[in-house]
């Protein structure tokens, strides 16, 4: 409950009222959906959601994959994926919900080699979906995607799919039967189509996903925003076999991945649901809203950066000065208050800025890592600003 309360507080700081909201934070557009075949070798489709009426030439992309245990589900069957696609399209993102190849449930429970092959085929399809948009950006530019801002993720099995696409970049880190499956399905790039374009991922969105091994997580890896119930056994919160131990696919959930992210120094933010089982946000609006707020604010810190990021509504820079052990905040308007959050969305500092535009925040006692800075302005018509900064 504490995590949910804190996330509500964060949403209030980062959001404000509807008039204070801006691109990537508020609902500025209608969502317009279309369907395309992105994987011609295996006839897989995806629904693409665009912000209707948006004229921006640089748009971030979110690709999500559905749940279903790698044996069921479609691009339209997952209520969480569908809702997030619509919500983020209304904020100015282009979003996509993909189909991907599935396996036979009976064989998944009896054949671990087959189960791994099914997962790897899904990973291959997931990469083809990314390349579809990268190819489009290099040719017809129908969707006007800035390929430096491609976010991928999913719900349950879909999250497992894209976690591996994000963090598996070295065959040597894979267990032997996973190496065999990858090599049999086109290598690390896969064989699902749109060849000739390198896969680019900015960050991962993990909703009840897991990795075969946390060896995949290395210093310098892509950021991750994640959520899971602590009593999840379908996708184990800690370590165990998939689907309540019925599928011999060993997985490591957020309870193991989060410390691995910390050890590797990877920027991440987690929302736990203590005592909850698998995907507690499915068909639970308050929990889904909490997850949505977590993702919204996390991605905002990546899209609206100070160095080469997209044009956002509230310019503010945050820099760490090691010489004075402080975070230097420079804003374009009078600041009302500033809150600093750690990677678990717990506020470590809240200060009243009193209308100043330049604020120095001491980091004495801070643990080295990446922190999120949220500033609310005195003028309610100015969107609140959210930034990230690394404290060393």
Report on the architecture of this protein.
- There is one protein chain.
- The protein has 392 residues and is of the alpha/beta class.
- The protein has two domains: 23-280, Alpha/Beta hydrolase fold, catalytic domain (Rossmann fold); 316-391, Immunoglobulin-like.
- The protein is built from nine helices and 17 strands.
- The protein has helices at 2-15, 79-91, 105-108, 112-138, 157-167, 176-184, 242-245, 254-264, 285-303, and strands at 31-39, 44-51, 59-65, 94-98, 145-155, 203-207, 224-229, 239-241, 247-252, 268-273, 316-321, 326-331, 335-341, 347-352, 358-362, 369-377, 385-391.
- The strands form four sheets. The protein has an eight-stranded mixed beta sheet with strand order 1-2-4-3-5-6-7-10, with helices on both faces. The chain has a four-stranded antiparallel beta sheet with strand order 14-13-16-17, with helices on one face.
- α1 (2-15) packs across α9 and α4 (112-138) crosses α5 (157-167).
- The protein is globular, with a radius of gyration of 20 Å.
- 51% of the residues are buried.
- Mean pLDDT is 90; it is low at 1-21.
Provide a brief overview of the structure.
By secondary structure, the protein is α/β, with parallel strands linked by helices. It is built from nine helices and 17 strands.
What would you call the quaternary organization?
Answer: single chain
Q: What is the count of helical runs?
A: 9
Residue ranges: pLDDT <50 for 5 or more in a row?
Answer: 1-21
**What is the fold named in CATH at topology level of the largest domain?**
Rossmann fold
Alpha-carbon distance between the termini? 31 Å
Structural class: alpha/beta
Q: What's the number of extended β-strand segments? A: 17
Average pLDDT level: 90
User: What's the CATH C level of the largest domain?
Assistant: Alpha Beta
Biggest sheet, in brief? 8 strands, mixed
What strand order characterises the main sheet? 1-2-4-3-5-6-7-10
Shape: globular
What order do the SSEs take from the amino end to the carboxyl end, as H and E?
Answer: HEEEHEHHEHHEEEHEHEHEEEEEEE
What count of structural domains?
A: 2
Using only CA atoms, what is the Rg? 20 Å
Strand fraction equals 25-35%
Work out the helicity level: 25-40%
> What is the CATH H-level superfamily of the largest domain?
Alpha/Beta hydrolase fold, catalytic domain
The CATH architecture assignment of the largest domain turns out to be 3-Layer(aba) Sandwich
């Amino acid at each position: 409950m504490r995590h949910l309360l804190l996330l509500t507080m964060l949403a209030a700081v980062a959001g404000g009222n509807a008039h204070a909201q801006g691109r990537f934070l508020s609902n500025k557009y209608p969502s317009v959906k279309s369907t395309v075949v992105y994987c011609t070798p295996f006839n897989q489709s995806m629904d693409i959601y665009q912000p209707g009426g948006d004229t921006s030439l640089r748009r971030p992309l979110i690709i999500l994959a559905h749940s279903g245990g790698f044996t069921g589900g479609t691009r339209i069957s997952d209520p969480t994926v569908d809702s997030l696609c619509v919500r983020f399209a209304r904020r100015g993102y282009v979003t996509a919900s993909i189909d991907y190849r599935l396996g036979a449930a009976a064989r998944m429970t009896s054949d671990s080699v087959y189960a791994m092959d099914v997962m790897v085929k899904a990973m291959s399809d997931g990469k083809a979906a990314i390349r579809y948009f990268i190819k489009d950006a290099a040719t017809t530019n129908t969707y006007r995607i800035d390929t430096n801002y491609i976010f991928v993720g999913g719900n349950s099995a879909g999250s497992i799919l894209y976690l591996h696409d994000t963090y598996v970049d070295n065959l040597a880190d894979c267990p032997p039967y996973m190496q065999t499956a990858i090599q049999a399905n086109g290598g690390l790039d896969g064989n699902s189509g749109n060849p000739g374009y390198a896969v680019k991922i900015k960050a991962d969105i993990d909703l009840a996903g897991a990795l075969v091994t946390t060896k995949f997580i290395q210093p310098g890896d892509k950021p991750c925003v994640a959520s899971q119930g602590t009593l999840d056994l379908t996708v184990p919160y800690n370590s165990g076999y998939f689907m309540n131990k019925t599928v011999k696919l060993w997985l490591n959930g957020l309870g193991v991945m989060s410390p691995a992210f910390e050890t590797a120094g990877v920027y991440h933010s987690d929302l736990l649901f203590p005592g909850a089982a698998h995907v507690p946000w499915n068909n639970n609006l308050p929990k889904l809203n909490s997850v949505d707020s977590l993702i919204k604010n996390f991605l905002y810190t990546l899209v609206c950066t100070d160095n080469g990021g997209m044009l956002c509504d509230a310019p503010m820079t945050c820099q760490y000065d090691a010489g004075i052990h402080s975070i230097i905040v420079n804003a374009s308007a009078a600041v009302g208050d500033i809150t600093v959050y750690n990677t678990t969305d717990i506020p470590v500092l809240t200060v009243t800025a009193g209308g100043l535009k330049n604020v120095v925040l001491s980091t004495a006692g801070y643990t080295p890592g990446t922190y999120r800075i949220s500033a609310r302005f005195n003028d309610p018509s100015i969107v609140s600003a959210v930034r990230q900064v690394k404290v060393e």
